[in-house]
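Feature request disguised as a bug: please show the residue count (92) next to Histone H2A-beta like protein in the output. Example input:
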Amino acid sequence: MSRRGKRMPFFLPTQTVYDMLVEAFPNRVNPQCAVYLTAVLEYLTAEVLEIAGKKAKERRSPMITLEDITFAMHNDPELKKAFPVSGEGNSK
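Example output, currently without the count:
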């Protein structure tokens, strides 16, 4: 079965995020935090993959590479703020 032309759905279960939070912070996690954090992670992932996908398409590649993701994170102004490179921190 060819993956060409088909989009792989991105799915991040809230329960998985909640379980990871509880493991890291026992007795300190409200379930609503997991819902919010899952939404933020899905949004950031969609943004990165959209830009990386365009870069891969420019290269005429059917697959997104690590370089495409790195390009997306370092060339989009908003993502660059969220993921600063060492030495480029948000110094004030």
